[in-house]
Amino acid sequence: MTFGTLAQTRLREIARCSLAGAGVTRLPFTAEHASALAHIRDWMTAAGLQVHMDAAATLVGRLEGPEGGKTLLIGSHQDSVPNGGRYDGIMGVVLACLALEKLKIDNVRLPFAVDVLAFADEEGVRFPTALLGPRTLAGTFDSAVLNLEDPEGVTVGAALAAFGADPTQLVGLARDPTDILCYLEAHIEQGPVLETRNSPLGVVTGICGIERNRIVFTGETGHAGTVPMADRRDALVAASRFIVAVSEIAKQTNSIRATVGEISVHPNAVNAIPDRAALPLEVRSTSDAARANFSAQMREIGAQIASESGLSFQMEQTYKQPAVNCDPTLAKTLASAVKQAGHPLVRLPSGATHDASAMSDLCPIAMLFVRCTRGLSHHPDEHARTEDMNAAVDAIAGFLVSLKTEGTT
Ligand code: HGY
Ligand code: MN
Ligand code: MN
After folding, report:
1. How far is the centre of ligand 3, averaged over its atoms, from the C-alpha of 52 (Å)?
2. Which ligand has the minimum distance to the alpha carbon of residue 377?
3. Is pLDDT larger for residue 106 or for residue 254?
4. Confidence band (pLDDT; 50, 70, 90) for 312?
5. For labelling, which of 71, 110, 278, 322 has a CA lying 20 to 30 Å from the CA of 239?
6. Is pLDDT above 50 for 408?
7. If pLDDT is split at 50, 70 and 90, which confidence band does 50 have?
């Protein structure tokens, strides 16, 4: 059995730790998360790691290194989006464990310790926040997050405590940057580039920044049959014009990805004119300046659309994460490991954000992408090939060994 086959088998098994329905639905601090940790614990134990769950519900598998040596961090997230795929996040955990298992079989001893990390919550689906685990390790965690609630009114703090973690001990999780070598994350590409380039692996150059704004158009409701069209202050019509403008202008700016993924309408009745339309505008770019410019442009356009129809317009930033670069030296080492494993080298930016985005506040980061069939992700049909995951295990193991020989410890 190859490591790729083992990875595919393990990912098929852990995909069952999910709510019913298409694809995988595994949110943080839930029964599905708890059952997934049992599988991950087994993977870590098979790799010879000492396993514990930290106060942020990150499962940590530690391979001890020489006394006083540094620690290399490697991993990804266990959670999924609703009806997501079986590779996003969790693939990075299984590949990390298998790479260490490979080194154990090859009797390779590393001159540094390794912590494999299975973070609880990267997607930010259950709660209006994300990256809890990486932020506690990086010391950038904001304790106000503990009071944020899920749709059922459960706070992050209560969910952590009920899960057996400890919201009062999060501050103590911060790592000393001088003890850390780097953070490596393997992740399915979630896009079409590697498939188009016919390459199983890619070395990530940087991770996009992200900004989310809450937009509200407010007009006036009225009877759908009696108010003349010219007299209407229809919030949904204005919001629709705004959404089309977002798409058209984003298309004209090549480094921008802008999405309106939800909308709520009031009174939301078939025979009443909408007096309120609320929507999130998400903007991503590898350039923070381009992202800020685009948002400023949309603020102006939204205000103009509103004033033309006698409505009011509000736009408030609710989330921001800057673009981060992967460490060029680590990327070079990872590139050599990919070539050493006999695969072509493709370098590419990440349009998705990752745990590595937050880990970059703690230490230098490197990311390895694995080809994604049809570029499909956040989708039940997400798929990675067995042979590509096998290639990834080779490349990760090669990267760890080359860090040893390059003495970057
Ligand atoms: O939204 C993202 O890019 C990530 O999948 N959470
Ligand atoms: Mn992910
Ligand atoms: Mn995701």
Report:
1. 25
2. 3
3. 106
4. very high
5. 322
6. no
7. very high
End-to-end CA gap in the chain: 33
The residue from 305, 321, 337 where one domain ends is 321
115 lines ligand 1 (CB under 6 A): no
**324 near 356, Cβ under 8 Å?**
yes
Distance (Å, rounded) from C-alpha 166 to C-alpha 45? 23
Q: What is the pTM of this model?
A: 0.90
In this structure, the residue with its CA closest to atom 4 of ligand 1 is 353
Q: Are residues 316 and 328 in the same domain?
A: no
Do 221 and 235 lie in one domain? The reply is yes
- State whether 253 and 376 are in the same domain: no
**Distance, C-alpha 25 to centroid of its chain:** 15
- Nearest in space to 363 (alpha carbons), one of 127, 89, 166, 112: 112
Structure tokens at 321: 């994460």
- From the alpha carbon of 190, which atom of ligand 1 is closest? 5
**Interval 217-228 mean pLDDT:** 98
> Is the pLDDT at 25 greater than 80, yes or no?
yes
Tally the domains of the chain.
Answer: 2
Ligand 1, residue 352: give the atom nearest the CA: 3
79 pocket-lining for ligand 1 (C-beta < 6 Å): no
- 53 and 179, same domain (yes or no): yes
At 404, the pLDDT band (50, 70, 90 cuts) reads low
Q: How many CA atoms lie within 13 A of 109 on its CB side?
A: 5
Shared domain check, 332 and 266: no
Q: What is the pLDDT of residues 301-310, one digit of tens each?
A: 999 999 999 9
Domain holding 92, by residue range, is 3-208+323-405
Given 287, 321, 355, the domain boundary residue is 321
pLDDT of residue 216: 98
Whether residue 115 sits in one domain with residue 55: yes
